[in-house]
Amino acid sequence: MSDNDKIKVTIIPTGTMHADLTWLLIDPSRMATQKQPDKQRDWVEVPTHVVYLEHPNGQKLMWDAGVPRDWEDRWGPTGLDQFFPVDAAPEEEWLDSRLKQLDLAPDDIDYLVLSHLHMDHAANAKFWQRAGTTIIVDEKEKEGAFSFDGYNKGAHIKSDYDGLEMSTINEDTELLPGVTLLRTPGHTWGTMSLQVDLADAGTMLFASDSLYRKESYGPPAVGAGIVYDSVAWLESVEKIRGIQERTNAQVIYGHDPEQITRLRTGPGNYYT
């Protein structure tokens, strides 16, 4: 079987934030901001990525949409620009640059699947506003993301996604043969994970913010400073663990600075 007959998955780094580790692993005794470095104890890298998937049936899928170039302007009104500055994003890693490297236009993508609608995962979703692409979110995420008035609710910034036509799922859904969207809520109302069953690499589970880092996974699972529903989050972690054990999957964490260096990443460096 040639590579053209297999699912191809490309992990694309899209810029690195920094943040106090407490946001990702709970330690209420400390919290740093960009302007208060004297308080910091663990001011850590928080890399971001998207996943580009090419299916042998000819369809193309993008998982998440990365951080925005204008993050200071868009995140400033929330105050979160101080807690999550995108201060390590070289020119070649912004999503529009990545699309050019892949020789893609937004309308080449059949599916944009947003794991959730936080500002570091959905910020560039409007690239696809008039692309004819099917945009998919969890139904609970869509409901929650429009349930508030004003500019933002935490890391949900309404202008990132308002006006988009978004399809929804309400159960684990095999979107394409070998490509399954998993409901893993807790981090937000409707966070999803992505399961891809590859011919050569085996199963890969892209956990998004259901699992920030290796330490989040444990066991035991370690909670985070940004979790909407801790009970649901723990249940989702164990759901992922069950699938991982059953399929011997590789779990890809949402923001792990060590793991991302060990993965095959960037245009041309795909898994099959």
UniProtKB/TrEMBL annotation:
SUPFAM superfamilies: Metallo-hydrolase/oxidoreductase (SSF56281). The keyword rRNA-binding does not apply. One of its GO terms (molecular function) is metal ion binding. Keywords: Hydrolase, Metal-binding, Zinc. Residues 47-255 form the Metallo-beta-lactamase domain. SMART domains: Lactamase_B. It comes from the Bacteria. Its cofactor is Zn(2+). Gene3D superfamilies: Ribonuclease Z/Hydroxyacylglutathione hydrolase-like (3.60.15.10). Belongs to the metallo-beta-lactamase superfamily. This is N-acyl homoserine lactonase family protein.
